[in-house]
Amino acid sequence: MILGTRKLSTFGAAPVQTRRSLMMKLRMNQQSTEHNASKSNHQSSLDECQKVMRTDHTGGWEICWEQGLTPWDLGQPTPVISHLCAMGALPNGRVLVPGCGSGYDVVQMACSERYVVGLDISDNAIQKARELSSSSPNMRYFTFLKEDFFSWRPKELFDLIFDYTFFCAIEPVMRLAWGQQIQRLLKPNGELITLMFPMDDRIGGPPYKVSVSDYEDVLHPLGFKAVLIKDNELAIPPRKGREMIGRWKRSLAQASL
Ligand SMILES: C[S@@+](CC[C@H](N)C(=O)[O-])C[C@H]1O[C@@H](n2cnc3c(N)ncnc32)[C@H](O)[C@@H]1O
Protein backbone atom coordinates (compact mmCIF):
# COMPACT_ATOMS: atom_id res chain seq x y z
CA MET A 1 0.00 0.00 0.00
CA ILE A 2 1.36 3.39 -0.94
CA LEU A 3 1.48 5.56 2.13
CA GLY A 4 -0.28 8.90 1.96
CA THR A 5 -2.71 7.96 -0.79
CA ARG A 6 -5.69 7.63 1.53
CA LYS A 7 -7.86 10.65 0.95
CA LEU A 8 -8.02 12.84 4.04
CA SER A 9 -10.62 15.53 4.20
CA THR A 10 -9.82 19.12 5.10
CA PHE A 11 -8.12 19.67 8.47
CA GLY A 12 -7.28 16.01 8.69
CA ALA A 13 -10.86 14.99 9.55
CA ALA A 14 -11.76 11.33 9.29
CA PRO A 15 -12.34 9.79 5.83
CA VAL A 16 -15.88 10.17 4.50
CA GLN A 17 -16.96 6.64 5.43
CA THR A 18 -15.52 6.88 8.95
CA ARG A 19 -17.00 10.34 9.38
CA ARG A 20 -20.44 9.03 8.45
CA SER A 21 -20.24 6.27 11.02
CA LEU A 22 -18.92 8.75 13.60
CA MET A 23 -21.86 11.04 12.87
CA MET A 24 -24.24 8.09 13.23
CA LYS A 25 -22.65 7.15 16.56
CA LEU A 26 -22.88 10.75 17.75
CA ARG A 27 -26.53 10.92 16.72
CA MET A 28 -27.28 7.63 18.49
CA ASN A 29 -25.48 8.85 21.63
CA GLN A 30 -27.45 12.08 21.48
CA GLN A 31 -30.73 10.19 21.05
CA SER A 32 -29.89 7.87 23.92
CA THR A 33 -28.93 10.88 26.10
CA GLU A 34 -32.23 12.56 25.19
CA HIS A 35 -34.11 9.31 25.88
CA ASN A 36 -32.40 8.93 29.28
CA ALA A 37 -33.05 12.58 30.10
CA SER A 38 -36.74 12.26 29.24
CA LYS A 39 -36.88 8.99 31.22
CA SER A 40 -35.36 10.68 34.24
CA ASN A 41 -37.65 13.74 33.81
CA HIS A 42 -40.58 11.34 33.69
CA GLN A 43 -39.35 9.55 36.82
CA SER A 44 -38.81 12.78 38.76
CA SER A 45 -42.26 14.04 37.73
CA LEU A 46 -43.71 10.72 38.93
CA ASP A 47 -41.78 10.96 42.23
CA GLU A 48 -42.98 14.53 42.76
CA CYS A 49 -46.53 13.49 41.96
CA GLN A 50 -46.43 10.63 44.46
CA LYS A 51 -45.02 12.97 47.13
CA VAL A 52 -47.95 15.36 46.57
CA MET A 53 -50.43 12.47 46.75
CA ARG A 54 -48.98 11.27 50.04
CA THR A 55 -49.14 14.68 51.68
CA ASP A 56 -52.42 16.07 50.36
CA HIS A 57 -55.50 14.75 52.15
CA THR A 58 -57.76 15.35 49.13
CA GLY A 59 -55.71 12.95 47.02
CA GLY A 60 -53.38 15.51 45.43
CA TRP A 61 -54.82 15.39 41.90
CA GLU A 62 -55.65 19.10 41.76
CA ILE A 63 -52.16 20.06 42.92
CA CYS A 64 -50.56 17.75 40.35
CA TRP A 65 -52.60 19.31 37.55
CA GLU A 66 -51.90 22.81 38.84
CA GLN A 67 -48.15 22.18 38.91
CA GLY A 68 -48.06 20.34 35.60
CA LEU A 69 -47.03 17.08 37.28
CA THR A 70 -48.82 14.82 34.82
CA PRO A 71 -46.38 12.03 33.88
CA TRP A 72 -49.29 9.87 32.67
CA ASP A 73 -50.34 12.34 29.97
CA LEU A 74 -49.59 11.06 26.45
CA GLY A 75 -50.25 14.43 24.81
CA GLN A 76 -52.27 12.62 22.15
CA PRO A 77 -55.11 10.08 21.90
CA THR A 78 -54.26 6.57 23.05
CA PRO A 79 -53.11 4.73 19.89
CA VAL A 80 -55.32 1.68 20.44
CA ILE A 81 -58.36 3.96 20.76
CA SER A 82 -57.51 5.67 17.47
CA HIS A 83 -57.13 2.22 15.94
CA LEU A 84 -60.48 0.94 17.26
CA CYS A 85 -62.19 4.12 16.04
CA ALA A 86 -60.65 3.75 12.59
CA MET A 87 -61.71 0.09 12.45
CA GLY A 88 -65.28 0.92 13.47
CA ALA A 89 -64.77 -1.46 16.39
CA LEU A 90 -66.25 0.63 19.18
CA PRO A 91 -69.88 0.59 20.29
CA ASN A 92 -71.96 3.62 19.35
CA GLY A 93 -74.19 5.55 21.71
CA ARG A 94 -73.16 7.18 24.98
CA VAL A 95 -69.57 6.81 26.14
CA LEU A 96 -67.98 7.67 29.48
CA VAL A 97 -64.27 8.23 30.17
CA PRO A 98 -63.78 8.43 33.96
CA GLY A 99 -60.62 10.26 35.10
CA CYS A 100 -60.28 11.62 31.56
CA GLY A 101 -57.40 14.04 32.28
CA SER A 102 -56.62 16.17 29.20
CA GLY A 103 -59.40 14.41 27.33
CA TYR A 104 -57.65 13.34 24.11
CA ASP A 105 -59.54 10.03 24.02
CA VAL A 106 -62.86 11.78 24.63
CA VAL A 107 -62.38 13.94 21.56
CA GLN A 108 -61.01 11.05 19.54
CA MET A 109 -64.06 8.84 20.12
CA ALA A 110 -66.68 11.57 19.68
CA CYS A 111 -68.64 11.55 16.44
CA SER A 112 -72.23 11.76 15.24
CA GLU A 113 -72.81 8.15 16.37
CA ARG A 114 -71.09 8.53 19.73
CA TYR A 115 -71.63 11.14 22.43
CA VAL A 116 -68.70 11.10 24.85
CA VAL A 117 -68.59 12.40 28.42
CA GLY A 118 -65.16 13.04 29.97
CA LEU A 119 -65.24 13.14 33.75
CA ASP A 120 -62.51 14.33 36.08
CA ILE A 121 -62.35 15.38 39.70
CA SER A 122 -59.82 18.09 38.96
CA ASP A 123 -60.94 21.56 37.88
CA ASN A 124 -57.59 22.15 36.23
CA ALA A 125 -57.81 18.95 34.23
CA ILE A 126 -61.30 19.83 33.02
CA GLN A 127 -60.21 23.35 32.11
CA LYS A 128 -57.24 21.99 30.17
CA ALA A 129 -59.43 19.45 28.38
CA ARG A 130 -61.91 22.18 27.42
CA GLU A 131 -59.17 24.50 26.20
CA LEU A 132 -57.44 21.81 24.16
CA SER A 133 -60.67 20.80 22.48
CA SER A 134 -62.23 24.25 22.09
CA SER A 135 -61.84 24.32 18.32
CA SER A 136 -62.48 20.63 17.60
CA PRO A 137 -64.82 20.21 14.63
CA ASN A 138 -66.69 17.46 16.52
CA MET A 139 -67.24 19.51 19.69
CA ARG A 140 -70.99 19.03 19.78
CA TYR A 141 -70.43 15.30 20.33
CA PHE A 142 -68.55 15.53 23.64
CA THR A 143 -68.57 17.28 26.98
CA PHE A 144 -66.27 17.55 29.99
CA LEU A 145 -67.64 17.49 33.53
CA LYS A 146 -65.92 18.11 36.83
CA GLU A 147 -67.33 15.35 39.01
CA ASP A 148 -66.22 12.70 41.47
CA PHE A 149 -66.69 9.43 39.62
CA PHE A 150 -67.74 7.58 42.76
CA SER A 151 -70.59 9.86 43.78
CA TRP A 152 -71.78 11.00 40.34
CA ARG A 153 -75.36 10.02 39.47
CA PRO A 154 -76.13 10.97 35.84
CA LYS A 155 -79.64 10.87 34.42
CA GLU A 156 -78.69 8.68 31.46
CA LEU A 157 -76.66 5.46 31.39
CA PHE A 158 -73.80 4.56 29.04
CA ASP A 159 -73.23 2.08 26.21
CA LEU A 160 -69.46 2.13 26.69
CA ILE A 161 -67.10 3.02 29.52
CA PHE A 162 -63.40 3.35 28.74
CA ASP A 163 -60.92 3.16 31.61
CA TYR A 164 -57.25 3.97 31.07
CA THR A 165 -54.97 4.75 34.01
CA PHE A 166 -57.95 5.42 36.25
CA PHE A 167 -58.28 1.97 37.89
CA CYS A 168 -54.53 2.02 38.63
CA ALA A 169 -54.73 5.61 39.93
CA ILE A 170 -57.30 5.05 42.66
CA GLU A 171 -56.44 3.49 46.01
CA PRO A 172 -56.73 -0.31 45.72
CA VAL A 173 -59.34 -0.29 48.52
CA MET A 174 -61.57 1.70 46.14
CA ARG A 175 -61.56 -0.96 43.43
CA LEU A 176 -64.77 -2.66 44.52
CA ALA A 177 -66.51 0.75 44.59
CA TRP A 178 -65.06 1.39 41.11
CA GLY A 179 -66.69 -1.84 39.85
CA GLN A 180 -70.01 -1.08 41.51
CA GLN A 181 -70.09 2.37 39.97
CA ILE A 182 -69.19 0.99 36.52
CA GLN A 183 -72.07 -1.45 36.92
CA ARG A 184 -74.40 1.33 38.00
CA LEU A 185 -73.47 3.57 35.05
CA LEU A 186 -73.53 1.01 32.21
CA LYS A 187 -76.65 0.05 30.31
CA PRO A 188 -77.56 -3.61 30.83
CA ASN A 189 -75.96 -4.58 27.52
CA GLY A 190 -73.13 -2.06 27.82
CA GLU A 191 -69.42 -2.66 27.37
CA LEU A 192 -66.43 -1.80 29.53
CA ILE A 193 -63.01 -1.42 27.90
CA THR A 194 -60.04 -1.43 30.25
CA LEU A 195 -56.47 -0.75 29.28
CA MET A 196 -54.73 -2.60 32.07
CA PHE A 197 -51.53 -0.84 33.05
CA PRO A 198 -49.02 -1.01 34.76
CA MET A 199 -48.60 -4.78 34.85
CA ASP A 200 -45.30 -4.94 36.69
CA ASP A 201 -43.88 -5.46 40.16
CA ARG A 202 -43.87 -1.93 41.50
CA ILE A 203 -44.61 -1.27 45.15
CA GLY A 204 -46.99 1.50 46.15
CA GLY A 205 -48.41 4.13 43.82
CA PRO A 206 -50.19 5.71 42.15
CA PRO A 207 -50.05 4.20 39.68
CA TYR A 208 -50.61 0.96 41.59
CA LYS A 209 -49.66 -2.25 39.84
CA VAL A 210 -52.52 -4.18 38.25
CA SER A 211 -53.09 -7.70 36.99
CA VAL A 212 -55.92 -9.30 35.01
CA SER A 213 -57.08 -11.04 38.19
CA ASP A 214 -57.37 -7.66 39.97
CA TYR A 215 -60.02 -6.74 37.39
CA GLU A 216 -61.62 -10.19 37.44
CA ASP A 217 -61.87 -10.18 41.24
CA VAL A 218 -63.94 -7.02 41.05
CA LEU A 219 -65.86 -7.59 37.83
CA HIS A 220 -66.80 -11.29 37.91
CA PRO A 221 -68.95 -11.07 41.05
CA LEU A 222 -70.74 -8.10 39.45
CA GLY A 223 -71.72 -10.16 36.43
CA PHE A 224 -69.11 -9.00 33.91
CA LYS A 225 -67.39 -11.47 31.60
CA ALA A 226 -64.31 -10.74 29.51
CA VAL A 227 -64.94 -11.11 25.80
CA LEU A 228 -61.32 -10.26 25.02
CA ILE A 229 -58.12 -10.09 27.04
CA LYS A 230 -55.04 -9.40 24.96
CA ASP A 231 -51.63 -7.80 25.06
CA ASN A 232 -51.89 -4.24 23.78
CA GLU A 233 -49.54 -4.32 20.82
CA LEU A 234 -50.26 -0.65 20.19
CA ALA A 235 -49.08 0.48 23.63
CA ILE A 236 -46.60 3.36 23.52
CA PRO A 237 -43.00 2.03 23.64
CA PRO A 238 -42.30 2.68 27.36
CA ARG A 239 -45.49 0.76 28.29
CA LYS A 240 -45.09 -2.13 25.82
CA GLY A 241 -45.28 -5.56 27.44
CA ARG A 242 -46.84 -4.02 30.58
CA GLU A 243 -50.25 -3.22 29.16
CA MET A 244 -53.21 -5.38 28.14
CA ILE A 245 -56.61 -4.57 26.73
CA GLY A 246 -59.74 -6.06 28.25
CA ARG A 247 -63.23 -5.87 26.76
CA TRP A 248 -65.96 -6.80 29.23
CA LYS A 249 -69.69 -7.29 28.83
CA ARG A 250 -72.30 -7.57 31.49
CA SER A 251 -74.07 -10.87 31.62
CA LEU A 252 -77.75 -9.93 31.47
CA ALA A 253 -78.77 -12.73 33.82
CA GLN A 254 -76.87 -11.11 36.69
CA ALA A 255 -77.45 -7.47 35.83
CA SER A 256 -79.12 -5.50 38.59
CA LEU A 257 -80.55 -2.64 36.50
C1 LIG B 1 -53.46 8.89 36.14
S1 LIG B 1 -54.53 10.16 35.62
C2 LIG B 1 -55.09 9.54 34.05
C3 LIG B 1 -55.69 10.58 33.13
C4 LIG B 1 -56.10 10.05 31.75
N1 LIG B 1 -56.96 8.90 31.85
C5 LIG B 1 -54.89 9.73 30.92
O1 LIG B 1 -54.63 8.54 30.67
O2 LIG B 1 -54.18 10.67 30.54
C6 LIG B 1 -55.94 9.86 36.66
C7 LIG B 1 -56.99 10.93 36.53
O3 LIG B 1 -58.09 10.59 37.36
C8 LIG B 1 -58.59 11.77 37.96
N2 LIG B 1 -59.31 11.34 39.18
C9 LIG B 1 -58.79 10.85 40.34
N3 LIG B 1 -59.78 10.53 41.19
C10 LIG B 1 -60.94 10.80 40.56
C11 LIG B 1 -62.32 10.67 40.92
N4 LIG B 1 -62.69 10.20 42.12
N5 LIG B 1 -63.26 11.02 40.03
C12 LIG B 1 -62.92 11.51 38.79
N6 LIG B 1 -61.62 11.66 38.41
C13 LIG B 1 -60.65 11.31 39.27
C14 LIG B 1 -57.35 12.63 38.23
O4 LIG B 1 -57.62 13.99 38.38
C15 LIG B 1 -56.53 12.32 36.96
O5 LIG B 1 -56.78 13.24 35.95
TrEMBL record:
<keyword id="KW-0489">Methyltransferase</keyword>
<keyword id="KW-0808">Transferase</keyword>
<dbReference type="Pfam" id="PF05724">
    <property type="entry name" value="TPMT"/>
</dbReference>
<keyword id="KW-0597">Phosphoprotein</keyword>
<dbReference type="InterPro" id="IPR008854">
    <property type="entry name" value="TPMT"/>
</dbReference>
<keyword id="KW-0949">S-adenosyl-L-methionine</keyword>
<dbReference type="InterPro" id="IPR029063">
    <property type="entry name" value="SAM-dependent_MTases_sf"/>
</dbReference>
<protein>
    <recommendedName>
        <fullName>Thiol methyltransferase 2</fullName>
    </recommendedName>
</protein>
